[in-house]
Every structure is written in C-alpha cells, then in structure tokens.
Amino acid sequence: GAGVSQSPSNKVTEKGKDVELRCDPISGHTALYWYRQRLGQGLEFLIYFQGNSAPDKSGLPSDRFSAERTGESVSTLTIQRTQQEDSAVYLCASSLIYGYTFGSGTRLTVV
Amino acid sequence: GESVGLHLPTLSVQEGDNSIINCAYSNSASDYFIWYKQESGKGPQFIIDIRSNMDKRQGQRVTVLLNKTVKHLSLQIAATQPGDSAVYFCAEKSSGSARQLTFGSGTQLTVLP
Fold first, then answer.
1. N or C: less crowded end of chain A, CB within 10 Å?
2. Tell me: the pLDDT tens digits for A44-75?
3. Distance from CA of A14 to the nearest CA of B (A)
C-alpha cells in the first residue's frame, strides 16, 4: 500500500481482556517495528522484525506482550490480560533501509 | 541504556520567526540522527536526517545541525508557519544496533499568530 496502515485506530477494552493490534507495512519493506507512546511522552521501542530473522523482542515490557509477523507482511501485536498501564498509542513503522514510515497508531484505552 | 533527551518540553514562536529545537544525546556510538514531526492524532513523520560524518544538512525551510563534540543536535525551522505546530522528536541510531531508533521525549512547538 501507499503507507503503513494500522487497525483499529481506537480500541477501548476492559481490564483483563486480550487485545490484538494489526499493522500492514509498506509493500517491500523488510523491517517492521512496534513502538508504544504514552501520553505526552516519547516513543518506547517494543519489538523489531527484519525479514525472516528472529525478531528483537528486547523492548517488550512483560510476557503479556507478544507479536508476530508472517514473512514481510502483516504484523499483529497481542496484549494479554490488559492492565490500565497498557493504555497508550501503539505505533507501527516499516522501513527498507533508513527512513522509517509510521502508521497513525492504535489508541488503546484500558478501563 | 543510552538516552536521547530534549532541552525544552515546549516552545512558542511568533509566526514568521525562526524556530530552533534542541536535542542532546549521550551515545557516542550514534551514527545517524533523524528529526520527526508528529501532529495531533497522527504518527511521526520524517522531516530530515543527518549522518555522523556531516555537521549540517538543509532541507526545505529546515536545517539540522550536528555537534558531535558536545553531542548536540538541533532543528532549525525558517519562517515558522501555523502548520509547523506539532511535537518534534529527535531520534538516534547507534552504529552497533540494527536500525533501532531511540527517541527523545519530544518538544511541543506552538506557533503564535
């Protein structure tokens, strides 16, 4: 596609529920990143996929967070047993070499 | 770990004036820097980048300056316009990492009429 697409754009969930966030990267971009952005703060790295290599999961804050990517296509970020502190905007970016292109994010609110 | 920080959380400038947004970094292995602009409700958008073998790079109305001696990066916006109001992030990549960017906390730029 022309840009990085994320869905849903907004998600409200009850504490304890699981959520899945989706990212469609730019076609041909081999690298895909997930970041978390809390209100008024910078971007916190979560996970990085590069082609078929093992992902860099060093930024995932707990074992409740996981992500998958099939080849160089869609990625899904899953948060299990959501907590209120998980409320944030989750941003996805893809890149070929340099020059990350971000999606508009998914705003997650845990109530 | 290493951090990238911004000197000022907010900046207000008059329309038409020049804006300067500053960023300090601490990782001496940083070899690539990017400035992003994030408007409300949107993802960050690439503005301009610079490699560590350069000290200045110019774009359309924007200039990035890099001072490796004091580990300082700045973004200059000429003739600031209302559409420039946004949060600006600097980000750095370490030569030892695989394309992961570390972002600063951002500066909110407000352009006054």
1. N
2. 889 999 988 889 999 999 999 999 998 788 99
3. 23
